[in-house]
Amino acid sequence: MRWQKEFFTDPEILDEEFSGPEVDTDGDGRMNLIEYTEGTNPRVPNLAGGLAAQVMEDIVGRFFQLSHARNAKAFDVLHTMEASENLATWEDIEDELFDISSSQAGDVIQMNRGHRPVAGKRFYRMKYEFDR
């Protein structure tokens, strides 16, 4: 795949157990696909990153601020924010999110979006899929 050529040699690309999208080449707990979508190097351990959530409040009320990095060059990956009340069933909440802010440093865009859940516990995750 196009993204692998930036970080791996041709022989390494042929070894899917080393350079595949679901492999954690550098052992930092983050799959190569996630490293690519967030603009980090899959060969260098990076403990920062991922999805961060915090409770915020504005004049309308409380909401969750959801922050994550996005690689501007990863135009071939679909990002979907999902939420769950029980960690068993997940729903796409992209239509419920509102933009708070974004900033860009090089090819990495830091996105901050808000979500006002109805009630109860909420768990969040990012779903990544290659746009084929």
Task: Explain this structure.
The chain has 132 residues and is an alpha+beta fold. It has two domains: 4-38, no CATH class; 52-130, Immunoglobulin-like (Sandwich), CATH 2.60.40. Helices cover 15% and strands 38% of the residues. It is built from four helices and seven strands, in the order ααααβββββββ. The chain has helices spanning 4-7, 10-14, 16-19, 32-38, and strands at residues 52-57, 62-71, 77-84, 91-92, 98-105, 108-115, 123-130. Strands 1-2-6-5 form a four-stranded antiparallel sheet. The protein has a three-stranded antiparallel sheet with strand order 4-3-7, with helices on one face. A hairpin with a 2-residue loop joins β5 and β6 (108-115). The radius of gyration is 16 Å and the shape is elongated.
Main β-sheet description: 4 strands, antiparallel
How many runs of DSSP E, i.e. beta strands? Answer: 7
Mean pLDDT: 91
CATH class of the largest domain: Mainly Beta
Instruction: Describe the global form.
Output: elongated
Which architecture of the largest domain would the CATH scheme give at its second level?
Answer: Sandwich
How many structurally independent domains?
Answer: 2
Classify the beta-strand content into a percent band: 35-45%
Q: Would you tell me the structural class of the helices and strands?
A: alpha+beta
Distance between the termini: 11 Å
